[in-house]
Amino acid sequence: MYNPKSSNADEFINNDEVLETLKFAKENKNNTELITKIIEKAKQKKGLSHREASVLLACEDKTVINEVFHLAKEIKEDFYGNRIVLFAPLYLSNYCINGCVYCPYHAKNKHIPRKKMTQDDIKNEVIALQDMGHKRLAIEAGEDPVNNPIEYILESIKTIYSINHKNGAIRRVNVNIAATTVENYKKLHEAGIGTYILFQETYNKKSYEKLHPTGPKHDYNYHTEAMDRAMQGGIDDVGLGVLFGLHGYDYEFTALLMHAEHLEAVYGVGPHTISVPRIRKADDIDPSSFENGLDDETFKKIVALIRISVPYTGMIVSTRESKEVRKQVLELGISQISGGSKTSVGGYYKPEKEDENSSQFEVNDNRTLDEVVNWLMKSGYVPSFCTACYGSGRTGERFMEFCKNQQIHNFCHPNAIVTLKEYLIDYASEKTKITGEKLIKQEIEKISDEKIKQSVINDLDKIEQGIRNLKF
Questions:
Q1: Cα separations (Å) of 325 from 9, 321, 365?
Q2: pLDDT band at 385; cut points 50, 70, 90
Q3: pLDDT grade, residue 449 (50/70/90)?
Q4: What CATH number is attached to the domain comprising 241?
Q5: pTM higher than 0.85
Q6: Which of 42, 126, 181, 207 has the smallest count of CB within 10 Å of its CB?
């Protein structure tokens, strides 16, 4: 039986409820009266239920789709403004004992080089990332209790936070590692992580078990209930995501929203972020062998509908996507992107040789961080390296309270401007500096509150004087 308040994955991601929702959506995709009511509800910017959103996903009326796109853009601007947060992934180890058929790190792959960074390796990688200008990382590691135990992850986090190089420092470490115990989540929380991220891969239980034939990840319920254990361990910022292409996109979309509703119902706090990766080519992985590939137009529609259904969440798109696709989805609700990314173990400090490639997937946007920053600014966005909410304790329920009331940008817009100034002075090319200084002047003029405006101006002066990591 479907029960969003249950702690059992079979109940809060109930297969019958998903199928009934898809049936309802198909039957009502041309129901003009119902669709109009759903759109009107969406305009209140309080979100949609999984069933309401699924009707819009099924609808093929171009007028409705265009209205969804317009509303998604409006909601993103109301909740997050024109800021785009930047981050980079850092792969610690690709040793893994799972048999995931879509990932080149699967245990049976004897071709890909197996690598694990030492703490000295991590230090070199972090310094290279700091020299690029990054302040926020997402660490990744395969599941292997021998090579990648929780102690190794915790030591690596400590190392990352300890490194101060020139004006560089990593101020927020998000963690994307395998589902674990409440006790281990407590340890991660005590280590000062930002968001705990775990992709569901697919919410369809039969497909999930087939795609994960061996290893601890085979346990669907243990994996799907991981966010509950993370919350119980004190981590109040969690990030959801599915790997689109493994199962039918409509099933995944519906279940993803059900998972967000479950977290809201039980903990009063929905997902801090939602990621929307699509399956990509990798060492021994051919995306065309999967039957559920997602075309760009449907992908855009899904991004827009997640934005209007879960308006408070941060939405992430990585360098899996091309520059062109990233530009399109930025307009439909994306608020975080990676830049200058490497998806191999190492590679920032010293590029890998071709025969030593340990990448998890092929990157489709190979631009440097500076190029991405310049591109964002020319596209009308403010690149943000801000971690002030994390540093000031505005996480979990407190963050959601501000965000749902559309007040978070009162903090984030000033902090985005200040952290952009840091980047321009410390890391940017001359071309990017010129573009950035012009943008900062324009953004300051948009601040209507004179007290906030003067505070930003004062902080910009302090940045010029060499002071760093200011928080509004």
A1: 33, 6, 10
A2: very high
A3: confident
A4: 3.20.20.70
A5: yes
A6: 181
